[in-house]
Amino acid sequence: MVFLRNHPGGTGRTGGGRVTTRRDRLRAATIKEISDTARRILVEQGAEAVTLRAIARRMGMTAPALYRYYASHGDLLRHLVGELFNELTDELHAAMHEVPQDDMSAKLLVVSRQFRLWALANPREYALLFGAPVPGVDDREQGDFAEECSRRFGWTFMSLFLELWRKKPFPVPADEEIDPVLLSQLRRYREDNLGVSLPLGVLQQFLKCWVRLQGGVSLEVFGHLEFALDDAAPMFELMLAEVCPALGLTYTPPGR
Fold first, then answer.
1. What kind of architecture, by CATH, is found in domain 22-70?
2. Ranges 2-6, 90-94, 150-154, most confident
3. What is the percent of the chain with per-residue pLDDT over 70, rounded to a whole number?
4. Superfamily of domain 84-247
5. pTM
6. What number is the average pLDDT over the span 17-46?
7. Helices in the chain by DSSP H: which ranges?
8. Where is the HTH tetR-type domain (predicted)?
9. Which of 23, 48, 101, 186 could pair with 200 in a Cys bridge, judged by C-beta atoms 3.0 to 4.6 Å apart?
């Protein structure tokens, strides 16, 4: 997927050198307005309210006119999903580059914390990405914009695990120590999705950490910890403090 970027004082060319026309720029501006409008409706009313008719009404267009930009309602939602994944991923990368690049403990902690902060600041957007399936969003094929963006997000965490494993391998179970039912699924996941040679124990540890991280964040975002906690940040930090030693990392409280 090629993204067009606006360069202050630029020449009207894309990053690849292709000259953009006025029509190209108007189309890009309209697509951005559609996307921004869709997100506002999402935040105000939830995913079920993000319809072509509602967007068109806000923009002073007719619903059929939107089909010049998106093939279907599902296509529009998938584009929004892709943009949200890119926004989240960009924030994670920006946070990661604020700490020393050779400090794996700091990198994992800052990325995990930034993931939670983005989720809490954008609960409706988080629900669209990680909540109950929304009709049309999951009807995508390999190479779909949303699929590629979600993979980019996923590799943010996986690449940290790969880097950590290469620099300082952490204890993992041997294949024969893994539940056979889980073992076959981990093997399929490695072969079908990763394209890298890794012990299955590493993947098990990765998924264990992801379940704790994303599960804890989801419980907080969706209000399922409010029965006991007004502020779940300390509980989140307890989780990080337990995960770090299992990976051979050092836990440091925030702000230190």
1. Orthogonal Bundle (1.10)
2. 90-94
3. 89
4. Tetracycline Repressor, domain 2 (1.10.357.10)
5. 0.86
6. 87
7. 22-45, 52-59, 63-66, 73-96, 104-121, 123-130, 145-167, 180-189, 200-221, 233-246
8. 28-88
9. 186
